[in-house]
C-alpha cells in the first residue's frame, strides 16, 4: 500500500508508492549523444574560459595555461553578475532588484572522461577544499546573503558540458528551500532544545535501516521522507551549521564518504544523471544551534510532473529502506 511520510525538518509530505516499487535496473535512463567539438574545460583550452580565480597547478606552470589539476573560473554565462549595486525597488506591489551575485565553475579534473566518483580521495578532498575556500571568500561580500554549491551530472540533470565540474552561485537573498529548512529547524529547536538534524542522525544510526555508509565523522543516509528514488544525504556527525568552518582534517573524511556514495550510486544505478547541493547556514546570520549543514544527492531517475508541481508532494517509487540496502550491499 502507498504510504505518506512527513519530512521532520520542513514538514513536506512525500508519497512512497511501494506498489510501483522500482529496483535499480527498472529505471529507463535517457542518455543524449556525447558532445562533440572542443571542450573549454580540457587541458590546452584554458583560453576558452575567463581567467582563473584559483587553481591547483604543477610547479612553475603559469596561470591560465596547461599544467593544472583543478581550476576555478567565473562562469562565462553567469546567472548573476558581480558588478554593481542591488538597487532594491518597488513597482506597486511588486519587488525587484538588480541581478547581483557571483557565479563560478569548479573544473574538478583535467581528465574529460572521469567523474567525481572516479577521482581518488585526495582529488575529491581538493574539490571540497575549493568549495570551502571560495565560500569563505564570497561570504566577505556584504551584498551576498547565501552561497550555494551544486553539481549537475549528466544532461538530464542540467549539465551543459560533459567535462566534470561543479558550480557556486552567491545570491543577494536566501533561497526559499533553505528558508524552509531554517524555519523547520528553528521550530524544532524551540520546542525540543535540540537540533533536528542531530536527532535524525542519532535515530538513523541506531535503527540502521536507512544508513548507506558511515565513518567516524560523517554518515550517509537515505532520508525517511526521500523525495526521489535513491536520494541520499551526507551529514557531519558532529553538529555544525556552517560548511565554511570545516577543517582540513574533516575534509579528508568528507571526501572519503562523498566519493564512496557517488561511486555506489554510479555502479548500482548505471551512472545516472544526478544533482547534488550543499545546504549551509546563510552568511552573517545566527543559526549555530539549530541548523546543520549537509549534502543532498538526488539521482534523476523519475520526472516531476503535474501532480508534483500542483501539490508540492513528491512521488517516490523506491522506499528509502530498499534504496539504502541496494547502495549498501551492491556497489560492485
Concise structural overview:
The chain is of the alpha+beta class. 25% of the residues lie in helices and 22% in strands. The chain has one domain (3-26, 42-329): HIT family, subunit A.
Could you walk me through the main structural features you see in this protein, from its secondary elements to its overall organization?
This protein has 332 residues and is α+β, with helices and mostly antiparallel strands. The chain has a single domain, classed as HIT-like (HIT family, subunit A). 25% of the residues lie in helices and 22% in strands. It contains six helices and 15 strands. The chain has a ten-stranded antiparallel sheet with strand order 3-4-7-9-8-13-14-12-11-10, sandwiched between helices. A hairpin with a 2-residue loop joins strand 5 and strand 6. The longest helix is centred in the last third of the chain and has 21 residues. The protein is globular, with a radius of gyration of 20 Å. The chain starts with a strand and ends with a helix. The mean pLDDT is 93.
Task: Write a concise keyword list for the protein shown above.
332 residues, alpha+beta, HIT family, subunit A, 10-stranded antiparallel sheet, 3-stranded mixed sheet, 15 strands, 25% helix, globular
